[in-house]
Amino acid sequence: MNLTEIARFALRGIGANKLRSTLTMLGILIGVAAVTLLVAVGNGSARTVAARIEALGADTLTVMSTRHGAGGLTMKVAEALDDPAVAPGVRSVSPVVSTPATLTHEGAEHRIASFVGTTPSWFAASNFPVESGAAFTADDEAQARRVVVIGQTVAEELFSGADPVGRQVTAGGALFTVTGVLREKSSSGAQGSNDIAVAPISAVRQVLAGYGPLSSILVETAGPSTVGAVQSEISTILDRRLEPGAYRVQNAAQLLETQTESAGAFTTVLGAVAAISLLVGGIGITNIMLVTVTERTREIGIRKALGAPRRVILTQFLIEATLLSVIGGGLGVAAAVLGSRFPIVGVQPVIVPSSVALALGVSVLIGLFFGGLPAARAARLRPIDALRYE
Amino acid sequence: MRTVLDVRDVTKVYGHGDTGVRALDGVSLEVARGEYLAVMGPSGSGKSTLMNILGCLDLPTTGTYLLDGVDVGSLSDEQLTLARNRLIGFVFQAFNLIPRTSAVANVELPLAYSGMKAAERRRRAMFSLDLVGLADRAEHEPDQLSGGQQQRVAVARALVTEPAVLLADEPTGNLDSHAGEEVLSVFDDLNAAGHTIVIITHEDEVGARADRLVKLFDGRVISDSRQEPAGRHAASGALK
Q1: Hey, are the CB atoms on A307 and B105 less than 8 Å from each other?
Q2: For residue A85, what pLDDT is reported?
Q3: Where does the UniProt annotation place the signal sequence (chain A) (predicted)?
Q4: A3 touches B at CB < 8 Å
Q5: CB A182 within 8 A of CB A83
């Protein structure tokens, strides 16, 4: 008796109980799809985080004050950082003040969380170029001209489609002329990074922020590889001017590392949850296989009485179990691939091939083992015992 | 006449030692080709045990059993399977058709296990179904057939390999008298066509149709006599 013949028996066996076969496959399908998709979501979120941090610029350092009020960062500190002798790796230094403000234009009103005052070097350092119009110049900054560059969100809210360049907006009781619009940046979180306005620091201090300490100082380095060296250079300068512990320096690369680590942990947790669902699915398969074989012990007895060799019976049940788990697993992978085309909780999933292999492998092994084991036992039964089985 | 079944002083003991049950206690029996034999006896007399041994479903504890001249006790498990497939046709009390499988597929099953090609298998299965008058029900599944029809499908399945002997264990036990008559008349025709039939029963009218009656009691043969068959249906011999 050849293999195709036995396979036909197996197919008939699967078809003979469609509901049960469907439910068995559904169990495996859900298990495999869950593992694949959840790992893909974890992987996707890790990639998104990494992309966002890279967009911030991997070659910048941010100096922030750890204390409020006196003793914070001043313009003098910022100027001191731009010292080619002590800190040759520094390309530019941009002092930053940031304050919430309400912008109005012809009755339209829009409140933004950060009205940024800075120097022209900020645009290059923060990886945030101007799309239309122009950035303000060093001269604008020196003269404290009231000019502003706005983000995409602000442009839409205030001008709703019209070209904002050359128009005027009111902020803190003063008129600012819009000179440009920033290029859209991939939004991170609820507070969009496009909801921003950038003006010369001198003007912002005059009109909105006052002459208190700076919010932060953005230091651009020559490249990602020099970030570590520059960090120690500017720390030397800062230690001379500020009390130790009064500031901290944030490094985008470090940030990337921590975020990647936590994203990895996230993926592991998701994977573990999914693995549990695969395990539960596997127990379901095991149960159904056991029931199937037990219920069909009598049928096995009949087949043996009619002259079916043990090998043929065993092969038939193994093929049945394999087909169920392979079809179920395959459909599970297909479902996961289909599901990964759509964002899930704001994350675009990215499928990890090894998770597909693992999930498929586990489900097929479970099907084979727990389908094969009871079948082997039943195939070994003497035909009269199997026939008497109720 | 050639001997098909030759049972010599066979005993079968279930269990061990003092608790052992002697289901067969020195049974000897010879069945020649073309015979129609009925084995009768009350329950517990060892009928089913004898049937299992005759059908190679079970091996005797002592004694020898020659099936078509071959000593069954010397066969391996695989050879026994082969012997069941080639030499014996079973008809069970509970029909034992494979559920959710068409009548013709059920009949084909023993041929499939013997490795026959699909087309030839189908042809023989249809011929066999025709013999029991169910060719028009070939595609029906067991639960779409009456008890009598199911048992006739089982007979067709037993016949399809052209076995040396047809073993029927209480073939009418689960049937009403009308359906039982249907099945028994098929046996009459088959015997008339030259098939060897061993039928195990506790019903007198079933036993009366055979031309040899063996009575068992407590695992021993208490009588073995030829008889004039009674109650066979009128068309008997039509298949000759």
Answers
A1: no
A2: 77
A3: none
A4: no
A5: no
Residue B81 and residue A15: Cα distance in Å, rounded? 27
Question: Contacts of residue B161 in chain A, CB cutoff 8 Å?
Answer: 307
Point out the residue among A298, A307, A383 whose CB comes nearest to the CB of B113: A307
Q: Which of A11-20, A144-153, A292-301 has the highest mean pLDDT?
A: A144-153
pLDDT at B154 over 90: yes
Contacts 24+ apart (CB under 8 A), B189-195: B189/B131, B189/B235, B189/B236, B189/B238, B189/B239, B190/B131, B190/B155, B190/B159, B190/B166, B190/B239, B191/B34, B191/B36, B192/B236, B192/B237, B192/B238, B192/B239, B192/B240, B193/B239, B193/B240, B194/B33, B194/B34, B195/B34, B195/B159, B195/B166
- More confident call, B18 vs A32: A32
% residues pLDDT > 70 (chain B): 96
User: Quick one: which of A24, A44, A28 has its CA closest to A360?
Assistant: A28
Residues of chain A with C-beta less than 8 angstroms from the C-beta of B114: 1, 307
Element (H, E) at A185: none
Chain B residue closest in CA terms to A298? B96
Tell me which of A255-264, B104-113, B182-191, B208-217 is least confident.
A255-264
- Give yes or no for residue A58 having a pLDDT over 90: no
Q: How does pLDDT run across A197-246, given as a tens digit for each residue?
A: 899 988 888 888 888 888 888 888 877 777 778 888 888 888 888 877 77
The bridge status of strand B62-67 relative to strand B3-14 is: antiparallel
The mean pLDDT value for B188-204 works out to 91
Task: Establish how many alpha carbons lie within 13 A of residue A140's alpha carbon, considering only the half-sphere containing its beta carbon.
Answer: 24
Look at the block and give the residue holding tokens 């003269």: A143
| pLDDT over 90 at B64, yes or no | yes
- Residue B7 φ/ψ, nearest 5 degrees: -105, 125
Helix (H, G, I), strand (E, B) or coil at A239: helix
**Helix A252-295 and helix A310-339, axial crossing angle in degrees, nearest 10:** 150
Residue with tokens 């998104």: A48
B52 touches chain A (CB under 8 A): yes
CA distances for B45 relative to A3, A385, B215, angstroms: 44, 20, 9
Strand B36-40, strand B197-201: pairing = parallel
Domain ranges for chain A, please list them. Answer: 3-51+258-388, 67-245
What pLDDT sits at residue A190?
Answer: 37
ipTM score for this prediction: 0.87
Contacts of B224 (CB under 8 A, 6+ apart): B29, B212, B213, B214, B215
- pTM for the predicted model, two decimal places: 0.65
Alpha-carbon distance of B117 to A1, in angstroms, equals 9
